[in-house]
């Protein structure tokens, strides 16, 4: 496809910034909210089985986070590179980047297929003393990993659409998958409409079915609606230079998000022998927290192509305006999240059918962690800016310090020095540290990369 067949200018470079950010981010915020909602709905339905079912999917959740980390990280790297190339009017490399995204998505799926087939039982070895919990967890994990090709294809297609300014279609794709999952959950879990009750297996089947149908729909949209780049399955052979450039941004994002999975796995392993109650609280908290943070992640996904495109096009004012406006939105979202968890935690917890003692302990934990949400919002937003500027390594440094150097050590110290009820204070300490580092790093990178661009 030659340059003459391309539009003179993408809307990423000409639309007024506030309108552009809203246009790009709002569909993604809505779709991420729906995504978070169906994660919560999964847990609500599973909680009606018994507490072991909730604990089983909570213990499997780190692997689902890891799949998301790999798929989203690769997609972010591909989308950021593709947007920068479109901004530079290098349409050939933009197209190569999009095709390499598909190739890498399938390679990633192959890794999780192998894990699901051969390592699910090993992963649940720590829960072997509770046979019911282990059996439920192994069955659930095996299904969501072995059939995760839908997840990888769907997310890669979404990132192509976002990178070319087609955020509305990305929202529609997530809505398709989420709605199918929500509809199928009670039918398969409880055996409605004459089907056998499948329990946690039904929850897993509902999840992967939604992903696969959304992925099929996504492929059709990519071929029919996306004009800036063409997807050619014959062009999906390895391209060393492009893969390297994709992972320069994508690998730090993968490691950063994988660290969340790793730390959560370790935290569950530490807490399981000491306090199964806190394992339950942590699992439920991450479901509810995702509903608060997902809008900010949607905002991030919307502004990455905006900043990347304008960085490639050397437009400083548009980059700066995007950062300022997005920071206001992110902070506002996290303030609302803080109020939600601090003022009505029992209302949120009632969806998960806890005992009164469990609900009271969880409410205390939620209020402590929520006190750091505003600091977390700043870090999350600046992470997206680093990725858009091709400096994903900065986000990785901050995440490693937050998770490995602050959160986990402080959590362990509090656990053994002050008891299991004190561990939640580790989260505000980690978030405030990450926020301070994010601001310092952003000031440095902005001065070096953005402020030098002529007006």
Question: What features would you describe in this structure?
Answer:
Residues 1-7 have low confidence and may be disordered. By secondary structure, the protein is mostly helical. The protein has one domain (14-450). The chain is built from 16 helices and no strands. The protein has helices at residues 17-47, 51-87, 91-118, 120-123, 131-146, 149-163, 167-190, 200-225, 240-274, 276-312, 316-343, 345-349, 356-370, 373-388, 392-418, 426-450.
Report the sheet-strand fraction: under 5%
Total count of helical runs of at least 4 residues = 16
Q: Into how many domains do the coordinates divide? A: 1
In total, the number of strands is 0
Element order, helices and strands?
A: HHHHHHHHHHHHHHHH
Q: N-to-C terminal Cα separation, in Å?
A: 32 Å
Arithmetic mean pLDDT = 85
| Class by SSE composition | mainly alpha
**Low-confidence sequence ranges:** 1-7
List the helices and strands and how they pair.
Blueprint: H1 17-47, H2 51-87, H3 91-118, H4 120-123, H5 131-146, H6 149-163, H7 167-190, H8 200-225, H9 240-274, H10 276-312, H11 316-343, H12 345-349, H13 356-370, H14 373-388, H15 392-418, H16 426-450
Helix pairs in contact: 1-7, 1-10, 2-3, 2-5, 2-6, 2-9, 2-10, 3-5, 3-6, 5-8, 6-7, 6-8, 7-8, 9-10, 9-15, 10-11, 10-13, 10-14, 11-13, 11-14, 14-15, 14-16, 15-16
List keywords for this structure.
455 residues, mainly alpha, 16 helices, 81% helix
